[in-house]
Amino acid sequence: xxxxxxxxxxxxxxxxxxxxxxxxxxxxxxxxxxxxxxxxxxxxxxxxxxxxxxxxxxxxxxxxxxxxxxxxxxxxxxxxxxxxxxxxxxxxxxxxxxxxxxxxxxxxxxxxxxxxxxxxxxxxxxxxxxxxxxxxxxxxxxxxxxxxxxxxxxxxxxxxxxxxxxxxxxxxxxxxxxxxxxxxxxxxxxxxxxxxxxxxxxxxxxxxxxxxxxxxxxxxxxxxxxxxxxxxxxxxxxxxxxxxxxxxxxxxxxxxxxxxxxxxxxxxxxxxxxxxxxxxxxxxxxxxxxxxxxxxxxxxxxxxxxxxxxxxxxxxxxxxxxxxxxxxxxxxxxxxxxxxxxxxxxxxxxxxxxxxxxxxxxxxxxxxxxxxxxxxxxxxxxxxxxxxxxxxxxxxxxxxxxxxxxxxxxxxxxxxxxxxxxxxxxxxxxxxxxxxxxxxxxxxxxxxxxxxxxxxxxxxxxxxxxxxxxxxxxxxxxxxxxxxxxxxxxxxxxxxxxxxxxxxxxxxxxxxxxxxxxxxxxxxxxxxxxxxxxxxxxxxxxxxxxxxxxxx
Length: 552
Ligand code: SF4
Hints:
The protein is built from 15 helices and 20 strands. The protein is α+β, with helices and mostly antiparallel strands. Bound molecules: iron/sulfur cluster. InterPro entries: NIR_SIR_4Fe-4S, NiRdtase/SiRdtase_haem-b_fer, Nit/Sulf_reduc_fer-like_dom_sf, NO2/SO3_Rdtase_4Fe4S_dom, NO2/SO3_Rdtase_4Fe4S_sf, NO2/SO3_Rdtase_FeS/sirohaem_BS. GO terms for molecular function: 4 iron, 4 sulfur cluster binding; heme binding; metal ion binding; sulfite reductase (ferredoxin) activity.
């Protein structure tokens, strides 16, 4: 019988039974029924299966024949996104239906794991661009090549050509293990103690396209490098080189980084892993994500939310007990440089040859340029080329006496090995030109910004990073730039809504303690219209030059 307290005030609401916490859709806790449309699509049919339908049906019957769940869902597992229809302004991005925003062409992402390209691969990438992609071939900030204007009819032939040289689009997008970031100088850098390439290759050959990992709660990003030359803290899992005083060179493991909603930097697990064990530890972390990751809400489905809720101690314990069946060795923290290394310019390799790092503007290159690059790389080096996670590229294996002729020749095709600070440090995401989520234009704005700053502040002598993003999704890492720009509509002249950016100042990755590691400050009132962006950055730069201290 219920007892009512006589002391209770009459206006006190009746005590409610404690609410049961809502499930997060974690498979390991028994939640196997999809809780949203994305989970339903993945459960109904493994997204990797869509390839057969593309090859046997859609490529023959054309765009109109594509099942909407394949088109806007499963196609991503093969690197395919529908492209934004030209002429739709950013103000309509949030109000139009997906089919109203897209045209019948695709963006196609080619994964270049570790950023490594052979001469044969580069030539095939260039030929596809010119033949099927209207000469587009952007270098992304995850070392991918991104085509636009792809027709579904051409996709099987593009796959055939890519796969003939060992490239693929498998799981280049989608809720699965994306391209593995790697050091662009893996295997050649003087300072590298262990080349992590075998671990990258093993992970890709064992697990990419493997249905054990093709249904993750969301995308899964990986970085594996000896040097601090990738944005490792922005990845779901990262392996970073460290020399253990007793066990020698191996890798320090970080988990739970990601920058879109609720940005978080990855945290150290405090373990040391030898090269041979990297793939197993990687698979254990992905397994935790698949089984314990949150699947109820898309914006809470990245690994970082689980890491934030569990803490690294519990994460390590579950990894060891449930996934590896053994204890991992404790490890020391790696040494971090004062700035991330971008490899631009001429540098010595450990075999005495050199590599030359060059900058396009905001990662924009064409197939024609890549074909010219292939000829230069063959004439000056061994033909090996690497892409960087800063939208730049390297030519490897150049004899010392050939470096200056290569620098000149690269300049002749629009790739600058001695760029201004502006060109060197500016990145831009895809933006409104092709991206359905975009609110503002980014690539062209980035090009204009670099040109204007080169004209007005040519001799600016500090390292500076400027990252332009077309929306809050932060694909070009808004929060970790010196000047991070998040696309949004702002109030322009006459009170009209116009394209603009919210500004984040002072972020950085790969920094030693005491430097500016962490996120830029998002100051509430700090916004600029896109048209005023060059003046805005110029003012910031001039103020910095006038007030910086010695050695800053
Ligand atoms: Fe598209 Fe936004 Fe990502 Fe830019 S940041 S590529 S606009 S989703």
